[in-house]
Amino acid sequence: MDAFSDLIRGVRAHGSLFGSSTLSPPWALHFVDGAPLTLCTVLAGGGWIVPEHGPPEPLRARDTVIVRGPGTFTFVDEVGTAAEPVACGEDCATPEQGGTRHRLGWYDRDGDGPGATTLIVGAYPVRGELSRRLLDALPVVLRVPAGGTSDPVLDHLADELAVDTPGQQVVLDRLLDWMLVCTLREWFDRPGGEPPAWWAAQRDPVVGHALRLLHAEPAAPWTVATLAERTGVSRSTLAKRFAELVGEPPLTYLTHLRMTLAADLLVEQDAATVADIARTVGYSDPFGFSAAFKRVRGANPSEFRRSALVTR
After folding, report:
1. Residue closest to 161 by CA, chosen among 122, 195, 219
2. CB atoms within 10 A of CB 163
3. What is the pLDDT of residues 252-263, one digit of tens each?
4. Most buried residue, 6, 53, 302, 304, by most Cβ within 10 Å?
5. DSSP assignment of 124-176, as one string?
6. pTM as predicted
7. Whether residue 52 is found in the same domain as residue 130
C-alpha cells in the first residue's frame, strides 16, 4: 500500500452522476452541487470551466479538468457568454436551452452538429478524513492536456456512454476511478509542478519503502530503529532523509496517519468503543490514544465522534 493508494481509497465512484451533453453555442451549464471532486472532459469541441472562486480555465478536445469543491462551477462556450445558465446537478433530468441537451448515463447522438461540443462529466463523492489529505493537495481547478495516459480511458468512457446496457453504472464508476488516477498522476508529475511532499518522496528508494510500510501496517509497533531495519539503512540515514523529503520525522508522520485513520473509524464504526479504535490504530492504552488524538485533532475522540455524527 503506497501513500497515494491509501489516500485515494476513499475517493471512489459509486452511483456517480454521469452527464454526456452535446452543446451548440451559446451555452452555460452551471454545476450546482459543489461535489468534492468533479471530472470534466470533452470528446470534441471545447469551452471554458469557470469556477465560483478562481479564474476561467480552457477545456479543449480531450483535455481533462478536475474541479475541487465545495464551490460550484460553470461550463461555458466562451467567457462572458450571453447564454442563460442551466442548472445541472444530481436532480437534473433533461434540461434543454439554446440547443443544449443534457442526459444522464448515455450519449445523445442526435444532438451532434457542426461546431458542437460533447462534454462528459463525472461527479465524485469523497469519503473519510484520510482522503481529504489528497484534496488538500489539489488546487480549485487542475487541467491535464490531451495526449496522456488517460486518453485510452476516455475512449472506453465514450463507448460506454454511447449505449444503454445492463451494468452500465458499475462500468462507468470503475472507468471514472481509472481516469481520475491517471489524471492526478499526470498532474503531480507535470514538468515544473510542485507536487505534495509525500508524492515526490514515494520515488525515493528508502523513504518510499518506509512510507509503504507505514501505510500497510499503521498499527505495528514502529520505532525509527525497526523502520530503518526494514528499509535497510541506519536510523540516522532514515530519519534525515525522511524529514528532508516528507517534511516531518517518521514517527510524527505515523502519528498523524494513525489519528486520521482513527477519525474515520470513529465515524464509520459508531458502535466501537474508544478503546477498540485505539487498539485498531496501534495504541494499547486508550488514555494515551485519547491524548494523542486531542493533540492532533483538537478534540478528544468522543467529542469528535459526536460532532461528526451530527453533521454526517
Report:
1. 122
2. 10
3. 999 999 999 999
4. 6
5. E---SHHHHHHHHTS-SEEEE-SSSTTHHHHHHHHHHHTS--TTHHHHHHHHH
6. 0.81
7. yes
